[in-house]
Amino acid sequence: MTEATRTSRATTTPSVQPDQAAKRSKTTTGRHSSRRAQAGAIARWTLATLAVLWLSFCTAIGPFYWYGGSIADWGFVNTIYFLLALAIYLMLLIALVRVGGGLAAIPSSVRSVCRRAAAAIGTYCRTGWRRDISKPWHALARMWRRFTATRFAHAVGRYWTAVRTYTPRIIMRCTRSWIGLALIMLIGWLWVPVTLLSAFGADIRSQVREFSWAWNQWTGLQQPYTGFFAFVPMDIYPTAHYLWPQDPTYLTDQHNLVLTVFYGAVAAASRYFTGSNDAGYVVLSSLQFLFAVFCCSATMHRFLNLPWLGPESGKDTEATVVPNSEPGSTPGDYPHAVARAGVWQRAIIILFFLLCPIAVFSTISLTKSPLFAFAFVWWFGIAYQLHMTRVKRGETPRRLPARTLAAFIASACVMLISAKYAWYILLAQTVIMLIADRGRWKTYIVALLLPAVILHGGLVLLVSAGKVINGDPIESRGIQLQQIARVARRNPEGIPKDAADKLAPIFNLDQMGESYFQQDADPVKSSGIQSKKVSYRWRSVTKEDMADFNSAWWQIVKANPVIAADAFFAECFGYFDIADLPYVSMDYYVTSDYVVNNTEWIKDWQPQWRENVARFARDWGKIPVLGWVTHGNFYVILTLLFGAAEVVRRRWRTLAWHMPLLLLMGVMITSPANNFERHMLPLTFVFCFVALTYWRESRGCHETRIAGPEDSAGGHHRDTESGRD
Q1: CA 698 – CA 708 distance, rounded (Å)
Q2: Which end of the chain has fewer CB atoms surrounding its CB within 10 Å, N or C?
Q3: Over the stretch 628-669, which tens digit does the pLDDT of each residue have?
Q4: Residue 178 burial by CB count (10 A; 0-12/13-18/19+): exposed, middle or buried?
Q5: Is the confidence at residue 110, as pLDDT, over 80?
Q6: Which SS3 state, helix, strand or coil, does residue 51 take?
């Protein structure tokens, strides 16, 4: 090529080269964006599929642990269970994702096949059956036509028309305010405290005993403290003696300090005025009942009526911006997000709380979990209000009203005083919301972080001052204890000598193996009254001995991986196995021995009715499929599927305030018991609200889809247009 040629080319194409470069740049950018979108879709579906695989795996291994088997016994039947559960859960997930993208849950091709099959079956029934088989059906049809022509049928029809016309109006009018919802819950639940009075287990008796001993100490009564023959309240749910201060104190944080003091004080006042604890139990159950009515009705009001909107349904007089939950979406894509709930949504949610035994019995059950669950419901409703009143980036954030902020703080405080793990949940949620909703960081600092720091810090100060005995760290090692105990029971020779030597000051391995119960770690921790197996050497163990615990545990797990895996799965599979019956259901507290045998006069109040109610709940729960709605793991599984669908749909802002639900699932897995229903109460109570939120955010997508073609199950047009993950 000559110099002239190069010069001419360089001078004849200047107007063309920039356009070509721009086109290449756009093409390259589009390719990169498409690749990022594909990689993001693969990552999201991988995460959702892992959740489905976990649910299917837990369903498949259930039969092993029902009959004391092992995962090493996996066979053809378990494979069938796994594949069947996998197919069902995948279909449910795909249906949720399609609904979330504005598509029908069932693809049109599948619907057309079903319609053709139904038409073929109908044709065969009309022409292919023998006449003597079809005669009874024709006779029934003639009888029905004659009945519909009678006056009685016309009267029934008019009555049914009136019911269909006026019932929705009555429901909407009665549920349009917080007071109306509170009255419905109060009247619907009133039979529970009136006929059952109270329900409780061993925990509150231990709390009352602790406070009584502390009160005796404060009034100058001399009591035993330490020593081989001393057996004090801290030895029932044993707290290692190295945690006890030198000066005697009888208050612990085993069952949460604030609840212990409050419950114990009410019971002490009851003994003073009536001579027994029974009146105190009834008062405490009644207070919890009223708290449950308040929390549920307040949260229903927020989800059903959206009170932060204007007086006109579906319109916002203050121009609240609806959060665009999916990338690439706009607030206009979610018209139903600001539409108040309809009749069916209201009826289903109210009926769930009024009829489901889990919610009904929780209103009067004096354990820490129901109190935490109702406080969490209250907190969850306020978090939804924050989610729905988020504004666009760069705009002035909307502040919570003063009363709502006070309620947010109060709900967090009740959560903190009723469950130890609330401290971790609130701390994690503070970090998440500071990232997701930075404009209102002061609200999250004041309402979430400060209560956690103040209450937890106050407890730390009391413990360091020797006024309160801190909880034993062995309580948080349920999985590790179960793995060691199962090995000690199934293969004691497989424990390495070094590990046995390290554990000798902490546990009696022989007693540990004998105490092992795969559903519950409490026997291994030597929980119980004085006549119990002593596997945990809580009297003599030291802090230095506990330093070697993790090392010994890991040696045992490495030497016995199958048995250790069995212990882990047996301790948590029931929370995610739809067919597993609860180890301890909420009806247990209604008819526990502590209620029917160890009370003064509560046991004589409607004893047969109490037994019949609990038996009805148990029998209902044992019915296949129909009984699932009474089990907490049913709602845990559905919540996990909804969360997986939100991940696929990239509803990150919705997921941000749903993260506590995932953290609570982690609490269940690490809890000391398998399929313990009270651990699932928070997720059970808020599931209806999670489903309602998903439905609202999906309805807008449906309207934008009406004019467009169907898309794949994994996403919709906004996913590909935005090019963001």
Answers
A1: 16
A2: N
A3: 999 999 999 999 999 999 999 999 889 999 999 999 999 999
A4: middle
A5: yes
A6: helix
Which DSSP string corresponds to 332-371?
GG-GGGGSPP-HHHHHHHHHHHHH-HHHHHHTTB-SHHHH
For CA atoms 257, 263, 267, 270, give the dihedral sign.
Answer: positive
Residue 327 has pLDDT above 80, yes or no: no
pLDDT of amino acid 145? 79
What's the length of the chain? 725
Residue 296: both structure tokens together: 């549920």
Cα–Cα distance, 711 to 455 (Å, whole number) = 51
Average pLDDT over residues 81-105: 92
Rounded to 5 degrees, φ, ψ at 366 are -90, 65
Q: Is the per-residue pLDDT at 334 higher than 60?
A: no
CA distance 575 to 593: 26
Mean pLDDT of 352-365: 96
Q: Predicted confidence band at 502 (pLDDT cuts at 50, 70, 90)? A: very high
Interatomic CA distance for residues 610 and 193, integer angstroms: 11
Buried b (16+ CB within 10 A) or exposed e, 70-106: bbeeeeeebeebbeebbeebbebbbbbbbbbbbbeee
- Of 9-13, 216-220, 401-405, 413-417, the least confident: 9-13
Q: How far is Cα 476 from Cα 525, in angstroms, rounded to an integer?
A: 11
96 neighbors 690 (Cβ within 8 angstroms): no
Residue type, 382: I
State how far the Cα of 36 lies from the Cα of 30, in Å rounded to an integer: 10
Beta bridge partners of 507: 536
Residues 97, 713 contacting (CB under 8 angstroms): yes
The pLDDT-based confidence of 3 (bands split at 50, 70, 90) is very low
Closest CA to 709 of 95, 97, 103: 103
